[in-house]
Amino acid sequence: MEKSSFFNSVSHDRTYKAEDWAEYFASFIGNGVFPVPSTGLQVVANDGMKLNVKTGKAWINGYFYFNTGDLSVELDTADGQLNRIDRVVVRWDLTNRVMSVKVKSS
Asked: What's the pTM value of the predicted model, to 2 decimals?
């Protein structure tokens, strides 16, 4: 199937969805954190079981995420006996139409 876009609408014959734009952007912007500044979305330890996620931008599957200021993230208390690795990620949620920083505990 051939597909082309984006053209001006004449009598409302052209409508585009967010998915159309995401597909377009995903064709030349890969998934990940923007490298400028080098501290973009950097995760930094804070007091106790808290982390700070620095300001920064990311793309996932053509969708844009922008954290405009330091974001405080709290970790759950770990088991006293078992080792654990937590990951801080930007999660893309198409159902709820949102991207946000989340902690994934193992």
From this structure: 0.82
